[in-house]
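Changelog excerpt: complex records now keep ligands as SMILES alongside chain sequences, and the structure block spans every component. Example after the change:
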Amino acid sequence: MSEFVDYVRSLPKAELHLHIEGTLEPAMLMNLAEQHQIDLPYSSAAEVERAYDFEDLQSFLDLYYLGASVLIDTDDFYSLMFRYLERCRDEGIVHTEMMFDPQTHTERGISFQVFMSGFSQAMDEAKRQWGQSSSLIMCFLRHLPEESAFETLKAAEPFKSQILSIGLDSAELGHPPGKFERVYAAAGEQGYRLVAHAGGEGPPAYIVDALDQLKVERVDHGVRCLEDEALVERLVREKTPLTVCPLSNVRLRVFENMVDHPIRQMLERGLNVSVNSDDPPYFGGYLLDNFDALHRELGLTREAARLLAVNSIRSSFIDEASRKDWLDQLGAPTP
Ligand SMILES: [Zn+2]
C-alpha cells in the first residue's frame, strides 16, 4: 500500500460505524455453511463476491441476512469478532464501537447468551493480548416493529454491563426514527448511550427526527444533511458527530462514484465527520481501504486524514483519560 496509507495507519483512530455481522468474509461464510450444513445459493466464495454488486440498501440487506444465518454457536461469534479486532490492531484502530443485531439471531432461535459470550470472550482476549479497546452498540432492526425492539431491550438486561450504546439500523426508507421514540426513551433511562442510522438512504428530516425524537448523540451516515442548509448549520453548531462510510455509500448508490462523495465539502463546512467501514467485505474494504479510496479519487490530504482521525476519537464514547492520550498523540487539544 501507499505512503499515504502507512501514514493513516500510524494515526490513532476510532472506528464508530461497523456492523460486526457485516465483517463476515465470503470464505468464512462458506466454511461455516459447510460446517453447520446450511444450504446457500452459492457454491464458492468467488460466487458470493459476485453477488456484492448491489442495486440499493435492500439488495445488500437480503444478502447480509442470508450471510448471518451461518452464525450458530459461540465459537462462530468469537471467531468473527476476533478477526475484526485483529484487523483493528493492524490498521491502527485503537478503539472501536461495534454494532450488532440481536434480532437477526434471536429470530433464528440463537440466544443472547450464545452471541454475547462469543463477543465478550473475543473482546477480552484482544484487550489482554494487545490492549485493544472496544465496546458494543446494540442495534434494533428498524423494519421490525417497536414492540420487538422493546423485547430485545428486555432480553439484553442480563448483559447490560457488556453493552454501552443503542443503535438503529437496517432498511431506513419507510421506517422513520419516530417509530422508535418510546424504546429509545426507555433505553436512555437505563443509561445507554444513543446513536442511530439516519440520512444515509433516508431524507434529511430523518436526521432531525433522530436528534429531536430519539435524542441521539451521534448520527450514523448523515450524508444527506447537505440537502438541508438549516440542518447543516445546526449540526456544525452542535458539533454532532456523523459517522460517514464512503465505500458503503458508493456501493449502495447513495453517490454514483467516489469522485461525487461530499466528504471534503463536509469537512470544509466544519461538520464533525469521521470515516468508517460499515460492512467491509460487502462494500469493498476496511477502514484503510476507505482512506485509500478517498486519497486516490478525491485527493484527500494528510492533514484532512489527521482531522478525520481527531474527529473519530473526539466522537467516541471512550473514557476521558484515554481520549486525552490519543488526542495528545494526534497533536490535538481536548475540547
Ligand atoms: Zn451501517
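The first strand starts at residue 13 and ends at 19. The pocket of zinc ion is lined by residues 17, 19, 169, 197, 220, 278 (CB under 6 Å).
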